[in-house]
Amino acid sequence: MGRVFVISLEGNIYCCKHCKTHLSLADDIISKSFHSRYGKAYLFEKVVNVTIGEKEERMMMTGMHTVVDIFCVGCGSIVGWKYESAHEKSQKYKEGKFILERFKVLGPDGSTYSVSQEAQLGGGGGSDADDA
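User: That's the sequence. What structure does it adopt?
Assistant: Structure tokens below.
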């Protein structure tokens, strides 16, 4: 395997909590009202320095979606997922967008989120948006 090319971002950066590889900018956040099995998650327009896993069908709170997990190129940690397609017409806006799980990334100020007690107990069901 060749050498990994890593993109450096400037500004308010979200990065991998394990290796600090840059992942996205705060300006690319579409929504902060998403949830994963580990707690808060943010929907981003663009993410860099990730590789993608295999496509899979996943039932989420807002219906069935085709997704791929995304992994940090720096350390291989899973940091979220990408929406490949949404089966519900009302969820099509997610297609091609990325979820970064706040538990797995550092915020622009170096902050991290801890796993919520509900997530530790297995509560909350599937992962997805808190759509109004």
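The helical segments are 117-120.
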